[in-house]
Amino acid sequence: MTVRTMTTVSFADRVVLVTGGGRGLGAAYCREVARRGAAVVVADNGCDVDGNGSDPTPANDVVAEIVADGGRAVACVEDVSTEKGGQMAVELAEGEFGRLDAIVANSGNVFNAPVDDWPTERFESLLRHHLLGAFHVVRPGFEVMKRARYGRIVLVASAAGIFGQHGMLGYSTAKTGMLGLMNVLSLEGADFGIATNAIMPMARTRMADAVTGVGADDPDGSAFLDTLRQDQVAPVVAYLASEACTQTQTVFSAFMGRVAAVQIGISRGWTSPDGSLSAEDVAEHLPEILDTTGLLVPRTLYDEMGYVTSPESLPPK
């Protein structure tokens, strides 16, 4: 029997900005936090999966749906991958609702090709729509949160970046960059009540269909993608964006009803007795270097330095 602890994750009097909120998981995030009382800025310029074009319809449709259900929402159809667009999204939240409490950086596009077939402009496009799309909203939003001494930031990463995936060079690189944002935002936000986490979601969306190439001629593939439901991810994002979440600098994996935490650590390694080493030393001691027994999980680069300079402080295996 599964025992569920009943608590209320509420967004009453909170304002949440969701980039890429017009379709797919982004729209699911908007609906979930709105259902829990949030006023929502649905930021989506309506570009296609390649990152081209614009269409205000998706963002406006999500807003209309939330308002029809008795919620509060406003659409921002600016391109948040630009400095101007990100600033305008944050200003819209403050202007319309008087505050900004949480940001879900979800916007992006997709392209799939072998490494040697990746055009430069495609690679740059992925970095712009994912990584800069987060940075240009988070930077002005972080300033607002510092003044309020409260904030929640959720950065949408991907297992394709952290663990790798064939054909996804630009996407994987951009999504792994979200972890760099998370680490610094977590450290700099700690004294201001700002918690920042990342999520690696899996769910069926138009981008997932585009990457996998699943179509009407592949019923088995389509049936599997249907098991990756958006309602298995949106509640996790809602928790991370809420006041109930005090965790920070953590990567969560969420799909098919499972929620897990990702740890990025270092092995205890091998240390040269006299501080000098050779390539032959590396080869000879490779088993010790690769041994993950007693894995260390530093929070900052200084933590790792401390493990080396003060080995007596290491926790026991």
Automatic annotation (TrEMBL):
PROSITE patterns per UniProt: ADH_SHORT
Domain of life: Bacteria
Keyword line: Oxidoreductase
Annotated GO MF terms: oxidoreductase activity
Keyword Metal-binding assigned: no
InterPro entries to which the protein is assigned, alphabetical: NAD(P)-bd_dom_sf, Peroxisomal_Beta-Oxidation, Sc_DH/Rdtase_CS, SDR_fam
Homology family: Belongs to the short-chain dehydrogenases/reductases (SDR) family.
Protein name per the record: Short-chain dehydrogenase
UniProt source species: Mycolicibacterium rhodesiae (strain NBB3)
